[in-house]
Amino acid sequence: MSSSSNQPTSPKQSVGPDYRDEKQKPTATVSTAVPFENVHTLPQTPQLIALLTMIRDKNTDRADFIFYSNRIIRLLVEEGLNHLPVVEHAITTPVGRSYAGVQFQGKICGVSIMRAGEAMEQGLRECCRSVRIGKILIQRDEETSMPKLFYDKLPEDIADRWCLLLDPMFATGGSAIMAVDVLKSRGVPENRILFLNLLASPEGIENFAKRFPQLRIITAFVDQGLDEKNYIIPGLGDFGDRFYTM
Ligand code: URA
C-alpha cells in the first residue's frame, strides 16, 4: 500500500453519539478496519477524532502537540490496562454497604522503544504509580539498512510481568518486531505483551499480527498506509521531532 494514485482511502463516517440524528453529526475520516482479533482500536469518538486532528495538523505547535498527544496516550494506557486480568474484590463503603468489585492481580512494566516511545512513559506513570520502565534502542544499521539492537535495559524479573510496549508510530513494524523478540528472549510470554501506539499502518499490523498472533495491539487509529519513505499517511510526520525538538 505504498503511495500511488490508486491508494485506497480511509473510511469516512459520521461521528457522534448514537442518539443524535445522522444529519446532525459531522463526517470525519475514521480508522481503517483490520481483520485481526488481536488488534484493538480505540472507539472512534468525537473526542478522539478531535485530539487526533490536533496532532495531525502541521500547524499545531509543539506545546499543543505534547498536550493533545498526552491525552491520547492516556486513553491508550487506560485501554491497555483493561486487558490485564482482575480478580473479584469485595469492599465495604463508608456507609457500611458492601460492593462487589475487582482488583488487578499481577505485576506490570512499561518498555519504551527509544526515542519516541519515551514520550508515552508519563501517561503510563500517571495511571500506574512507580511502574517499572525498561528501554530498548533500535536503529537502522547504516551498512545493512536493517534494524539493529543498540541498547536495552529491562527489569530483571520482566519474565514475571505484563509488558506494555510503547512506541507512538507503528509504521513498518521493524523496530517493534525486534523489541518483541528481545522481550521473548527474556522469557516474557507473547500473550503478556501489549503494544500501545497512536497511529498504525495496515502493513505494520499485518506483519506483526501474523508473526505474534497472541500479542495484543492497542492503537488509536489504523491509518491509510505508508509512503515511499515509510512514513505513515496521512499520519502526523515525525512524532519524536514534533514532541521533543521542533
Ligand atoms: N515514525 C514517525 O515518527 N512517523 C512516521 O510516520 C513513521 C515512523
Automatic annotation (TrEMBL):
<dbReference type="Pfam" id="PF14681">
    <property type="entry name" value="UPRTase"/>
</dbReference>
<dbReference type="InterPro" id="IPR029057">
    <property type="entry name" value="PRTase-like"/>
</dbReference>
<keyword id="KW-0021">Allosteric enzyme</keyword>
<dbReference type="GO" id="GO:0008655">
    <property type="term" value="P:pyrimidine-containing compound salvage"/>
</dbReference>
<feature type="domain" description="Phosphoribosyltransferase">
    <location>
        <begin position="43"/>
        <end position="244"/>
    </location>
</feature>
<dbReference type="InterPro" id="IPR000836">
    <property type="entry name" value="PRTase_dom"/>
</dbReference>
<comment type="pathway">
    <text>Pyrimidine metabolism; UMP biosynthesis via salvage pathway; UMP from uracil: step 1/1.</text>
</comment>
<comment type="similarity">
    <text>Belongs to the UPRTase family.</text>
</comment>
<feature type="compositionally biased region" description="Polar residues">
    <location>
        <begin position="1"/>
        <end position="13"/>
    </location>
</feature>
<dbReference type="GO" id="GO:0005525">
    <property type="term" value="F:GTP binding"/>
</dbReference>
<keyword id="KW-0342">GTP-binding</keyword>
<keyword id="KW-0328">Glycosyltransferase</keyword>
<keyword id="KW-0547">Nucleotide-binding</keyword>
<protein>
    <recommendedName>
        <fullName>uracil phosphoribosyltransferase</fullName>
        <ecNumber>2.4.2.9</ecNumber>
    </recommendedName>
</protein>
<keyword id="KW-0808">Transferase</keyword>
<dbReference type="GO" id="GO:0004845">
    <property type="term" value="F:uracil phosphoribosyltransferase activity"/>
</dbReference>
<feature type="region of interest" description="Disordered">
    <location>
        <begin position="1"/>
        <end position="28"/>
    </location>
</feature>
